[in-house]
């Protein structure tokens, strides 16, 4: 990969830097262009700035052949799709993949559980996002009766070992759990039903989200307690406010990694929106009951 970069014309090699400079220049301009529109202008300015920093960070990952795996889990309608669009908007399309697997085929059901996910793991220089992942076995599957209690118990034992093997092999894992209140979820699901552009998101699992709220909470807690580890810790995101959640996730990614030319203006995420999981969060109100 290094040789290919050397062989590129200077204009090609400098393209990521030029793109980053354009985005960086646009950030303050976006904030000053028009009066604040219910926070929309401020959000766009911050988003542009953070996306600019992410362009720099990803270029560093590519040049150093990093393998980056980012997992997004959470309740139905928690905002995973929107967060992914905001995060990946200006990332390199060749080195970035978003994986959202459908339900397994009959053949896949007979395989080692992690097998179909392993096929999508990142190679050197790649960043892969899982929009839901093997953690289906800790949440959706047991709640909906798609697996047995023994299946889930075995998964909770194996998942930390699987992730530990990935990190030992050079893959960096960042895991986000997007949490929202029951009332907010109800409103978003209702909005989906009314919006023809979002109607494809409505299905049997979404319909059960409110009815099985307590079961999902129980499974969430079990999952976080069993699979939060130093090699692959969970980061909790309060997603009642979608835009604040997206900005906080970007800030977390940027602060969690070292990279050249980091902006001194980069702030830490708001701890009221995003924080590292700890068992006390289950009972102290930081996670939706």
Structure notes:
By secondary structure, the protein is of the alpha/beta class. The chain has a single domain (67-282), classed as P-loop containing nucleotide triphosphate hydrolases (Rossmann fold, 3-Layer(aba) Sandwich). Helices cover 49% and strands 12% of the residues. The protein has 13 helices and 6 strands. The chain has a 6-stranded mixed sheet, sandwiched between helices. α3 packs antiparallel against α4 (40-63). The protein is globular, with a radius of gyration of 20 Å. The termini are far apart. Residues 1-13 and 28-36 have low confidence and may be disordered.
Kindly summarize this structure in a few lines.
With 289 residues, the protein is an alpha/beta fold. The chain has helices at 2-7, 10-13, 15-33, 40-63, 80-88, 106-109, 115-118, 140-144, 149-168, 182-194, 204-208, 213-227, 242-256, and strands at residues 67-74, 96-99, 127-131, 171-179, 234-238, 274-276. Mean pLDDT is 90; it is low at 1-13 and 28-36.
């Amino acid at each position: 990969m290094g040789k290919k970069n050397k062989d590129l014309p200077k204009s090609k090699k400098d393209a990521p830097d030029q793109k980053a400079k354009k985005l960086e220049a646009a950030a303050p301009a976006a904030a000053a262009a028009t009066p604040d529109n219910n926070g929309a202008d401020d959000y766009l300015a911050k988003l542009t700035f953070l996306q600019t920093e992410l362009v720099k960070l990803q270029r560093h990952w590519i040049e150093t052949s990093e393998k980056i795996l980012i997992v997004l889990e959470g309740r139905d309608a928690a905002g995973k799709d929107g967060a992914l669009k905001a995060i990946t908007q200006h990332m390199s399309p060749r080195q970035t993949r978003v994986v959202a697997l459908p339900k397994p085929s009959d053949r896949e059901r007979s395989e080692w559980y992690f097998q179909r996910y392993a096929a999508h793991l990142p190679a050197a220089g790649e960043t892969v996002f899982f929009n839901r992942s093997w953690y289906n076995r800790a949440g959706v599957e047991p709640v909906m009766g798609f697996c047995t209690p023994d299946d889930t118990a075995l998964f909770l034992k194996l998942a930390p070992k699987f992730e530990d093997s990935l990190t030992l092999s050079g893959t960096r894992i960042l895991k986000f759990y997007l949490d929202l209140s029951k009332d907010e979820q109800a409103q978003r699901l209702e909005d989906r039903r009314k919006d023809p552009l979002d109607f494809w998101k409505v299905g049997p699992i979404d319909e059960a989200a409110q009815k099985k709220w307590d079961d999902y909470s129980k499974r969430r807690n079990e999952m976080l307690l069993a699979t939060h580890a130093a090699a692959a810790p969970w980061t909790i995101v309060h997603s009642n406010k979608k835009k604040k959640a997206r900005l906080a996730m970007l800030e977390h990614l940027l602060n969690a990694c070292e990279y050249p030319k980091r902006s001194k203006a980069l702030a830490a995420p708001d701890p009221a929106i995003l924080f590292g999981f700890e068992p006390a969060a289950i009972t102290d109100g930081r996670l939706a009951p």
